[in-house]
Design goal:
Layout: E1 38-41, E2 47-50, E3 56-65, E4 68-74, E5 80-84, E6 89-91, E7 94-99, E8 137-140, H1 143-160, E9 163-166, H2 173-180, E10 188-192, H3 200-211, E11 219-223, H4 252-260, H5 267-279, H6 289-303
Parallel strand pairs: 1-7, 8-9, 8-10, 10-11
Antiparallel strand pairs: 2-3, 2-6, 3-4, 4-5, 6-7
Length: 309
């Protein structure tokens, strides 16, 4: 008796219009989902590119203009442009929607009666509204200098009503001082990088003050010995025994980033490097006295403007 042969295996039923691989035979093999934008807080130093214009720059600030939130971007040459906050930006090549940065966290609660301290070490003043800005000003050379001063002395400066402004180098210091018109009750304190005897910076400062003898009593220029304000952060905050030595003639930030084995090829890399350094600074104790002492000196000078009256 012949054994009946088994039935041939049945092929699984396929839905109409679909191949055996589970894909739609009518679908284009090249069609891909468009990447969706994610939210990115527009924090100072974040480097993004505007898709429409190709403008690439670091976030300087977010503000309201005509009832609309806008973001100010600064490119590698120090030029700034303003864009509406929202979609239309690239971050590391990925689409993002810029949103306002989160407000600073409230200070930690402390026991009743225990005096609080600001990052600069002064007694914290609570429950007091920020003072109307003085006419006197403090000028610093770059955005990183301003961000460092804000992080450590920001609370003190708001109580005193002192505004810190950027100065695009000291090459045109005389022109900037003349335009500011210092005088009684209107002082300006200037913090200069690498201010050492015999340097170009020292010569420019001396020339500026000689050119404006009437303004000189109301102007104080001080400096620190570092090539860049990064060096004013104590190296142990980065796990270093000392800052790397960069050969003369080479861009200092680029040399430091290379020695630390951090990315350095683009302005975005430099901005991220600075954010890592700044994140390691919590109090005035994390800075070299050669910088912190000069900033304290400038604050004392500009807040003593009442003595001019």
């Amino acid at each position: 008796m012949r054994t009946p042969s088994p039935d041939p295996p049945r092929e699984p039923r396929r839905a109409p219009g679909r191949s055996g691989w589970g894909g739609d035979v009518l679908a284009s093999p090249h069609r891909r989902a468009r990447p969706r934008s994610t939210d990115a807080p527009a924090e100072a130093g974040l480097v993004v590119e505007d898709v429409e214009t190709g403008w690439c720059g670091a976030v300087v600030r977010v503000e309201k203009s005509g009832g609309v939130h806008v973001v100010v971007l600064e490119d590698r040459r120090g030029r700034t442009r303003t864009f509406p906050l929202g979609p239309g930006f690239l971050l590391d090549g990925a689409p993002v929607r810029l949103v306002p940065p989160a407000p600073p966290a409230p200070p930690a609660r402390r026991a009743a009666g225990a005096p609080g301290r600001t990052a600069s070490g002064s007694v914290a003043v609570t429950g007091q509204r920020a003072r109307v800005a003085r006419e006197s000003r403090i000028w610093v050379e770059g955005r990183h200098d301003a961000e460092l001063v804000e992080k450590i002395w920001g609370d003190d400066l708001r109580v005193e009503g002192v505004v810190v402004e950027g100065l695009d180098g000291v090459d045109h210091l005389a022109r900037e001082v003349a335009a500011f018109q210092p005088g009684p009750g209107r002082r300006v304190g200037v913090l200069v990088d690498h201010l050492l005897d015999g340097t170009k910076e020292a010569r420019l400062v001396q020339e500026a003050l000689r050119a404006l003898p009437a303004a000189a009593p109301h102007v104080l220029v001080v400096g620190h010995p570092y090539v860049d304000v990064w060096q004013a952060v104590r190296p142990h905050r980065l796990g270093l025994a000392q800052w790397p030595v960069v050969p003369r003639g080479r861009p200092w930030k680029e040399g430091v980033l290379e020695a630390l084995r951090w990315p350095r090829a683009t302005p975005a890399d430099v901005a991220r490097g600075w954010r890592r350094i700044l994140a390691g600074v919590d109090t005035i104790a994390d800075l070299e006295p050669a910088l912190s002492g000069r900033v304290e000196q400038l604050i004392d000078f500009v807040t003593g403007d009442a003595l001019d009256r």
